[in-house]
Amino acid sequence: MKAIVKQQGITFTGFIIVAALLVSVAIFSMKLIPAYMENGKIQHAFDAIVSDPAMQAGTVREIKDSFYKRANTMDNVSSVQSEDIVITKEDGRLSLSANYSAKIPLAGNVSLLVEFTPHAPK
Predict the structure, then answer these.
(1) Cβ distance 100 to 116 under 8 Å?
(2) Confidence (pTM)
(3) Number of C-alpha atoms within 13 angstroms, CB side, residue 61?
C-alpha cells in the first residue's frame, strides 16, 4: 500500500489574512506616494536654483521668487511656501533648505505625520 501524502498549502483563512495585509500595505503606500512626490518636486526646485549661475549672486527675494515660479506655479507645490525656505551663502555657495511636515489621513481619526527636510546642495 502506498502511504497517503498530506496536502500542503494555504488555508482559506490564511489566504484572507494575507490578502488583507497586502491590501492594507497597498492603501498605505498609495496615501504616502503623493507626499513623497511633492517632496521630490521641492528637492528638484532647490537643486535647479542652486545649480543656476544667475542665482548664486541673486538676492534673497530673487531666490524666493525663483522658487515660487518653479515650484508653486509649474509643479503646484503647496507644502512649502517661499517664506519657509532658509537661504544661506557659505564661501560664496548658495544653500537652500526647508523643514515641513505632511499630515496624511489614513482612516477615521487616524493620521500619519511625515517630516521632510529637503536641502541643496546635498
Answers:
(1) yes
(2) 0.79
(3) 0
